Amino acid sequence: MSATAPVIDQVKLDEFMGRFVGDLGAALSAALVVIGDRLGLYKAMADGGGVTPEELAQRTGTDPRYVREWLSNQAAGGYVTYDPDAERFSLTPEQSLALAQEQSPAFVPGAFQLATALVKDEPAITQAFTTGSGVGWHEHNHDLFAGTERFFRPGYAANLISAWIPALDGVQAKLETGALVADVGCGHGASTIIMAQAFPRSEFVGFDYHAGSIEHARQAASQAGLDGRVRFEVATAKEFTGEGYELVAMFDCLHDMGDPVGASAHVLEALAPHGTWLLVEPYAGDRLEDNLTPVGRVFYGASTLVCTPASRDQEVGLALGAQAGEARLREVVTAGGFTRFRRATETPFNLVLEARP
């Protein structure tokens, strides 16, 4: 008895194919955003004035034929604007803010830098799927480390001092007076440096197990004139040194850890008696269906390619994933010995959580 062939709904098929075309265009264009960023093409258009491909090529020392094709792709995707009457390309103020101004809170090229790095690592992730093994953070393409800092730094700059720390109970006053702070999983040190610049009476120590990132963080702190008040050390979340910290911060990293419960217990030991643990994690609901959104798609993608493999590469390998949700995070934190846990604030991309002894 033959199976009945499924009935194809042409409208639904057309809708899916339209989504596919958009996704394929976005995937191909990711590398072109990285190229535009690295070659200074966006920055050369930051003033909003219209340019021809030849003029932009002359400004940036690039080939006009390649630039014409690049500009056409960017215009088709809405990343630059094309005036057909003048036959010139330009950036609107909003496009410039997002693509050409690295210090803006909306700067996005770092996201494409990390995304293209993860695509390069696909063979290792494919192998991990078949073995269940991990792929360590340190094993990824070097652009992941730089791209992650450039992607997350604008959000930290926009929110950390103005909203996240003020949402914590009594922490801002301690930092203004002078306190000892640990930034665990600090990467290139962007979050550590932002806090140190805002609170000159406090002392900051950044920890990360990735030696290359710590070296970069040390150089960045020196360039920022923070020698003597900020230091960076190579250490894991279960082994970072020191005690009496009034604040321990972890930005977008607890879910990457193999043993986040062990990390929680170690943070508890390192805190001062009335200290605070600040956890910033990707925004997520507690149910899968809550996260089937464009933002959830991004986070599940990153979780599959970097967060889950990173956790599997470590002891325990709990693999919380980037969409763990508040309830699961609460379980992990309280299992480490904390008795108080709350959501202090949030953004469309972040859960900002406070834990206390």
Structural write-up:
By secondary structure, this protein is an alpha/beta fold. It folds into 2 domains: 10-101, Winged helix-like DNA-binding domain superfamily/Winged helix DNA-binding domain (Arc Repressor Mutant, subunit A); 112-356, Rossmann fold, CATH 3.40.50.150. It has helices at 10-38, 53-60, 64-76, 93-99, 109-120, 122-131, 142-164, 171-177, 190-198, 211-223, 260-270, 294-312, 326-335; strands at residues 81-83, 88-90, 180-184, 203-208, 230-234, 245-251, 271-282, 340-346, 350-356. It has a 7-stranded mixed sheet, sandwiched between helices. A two-stranded antiparallel ribbon has the order 1-2. It is globular and about 65 Å long.
Helix-strand layout with pairing:
Blueprint: H1 10-38, H2 53-60, H3 64-76, E1 81-83, E2 88-90, H4 93-99, H5 109-120, H6 122-131, H7 142-164, H8 171-177, E3 180-184, H9 190-198, E4 203-208, H10 211-223, E5 230-234, E6 245-251, H11 260-270, E7 271-282, H12 294-312, H13 326-335, E8 340-346, E9 350-356
Parallel strand pairs: 3-4, 3-6, 4-5, 6-7
Antiparallel strand pairs: 1-2, 7-9, 8-9
Helix pairs in contact: 1-5, 2-3, 5-7, 7-9, 11-13
Quick overview of this protein structure:
The chain has 357 residues and is α/β, with parallel strands linked by helices.
Which superfamily, in CATH terms, is the homologous superfamily of the largest domain?
Vaccinia Virus protein VP39
Q: What Rg do the Cα atoms give?
A: 23 Å
Helical stretch tally: 13
User: What fraction of residues sit in β-strands?
Assistant: 15-25%
Note poorly predicted spans: none
Strand order of the largest sheet: 5-4-3-6-7-9-8
CATH class of the largest domain: Alpha Beta
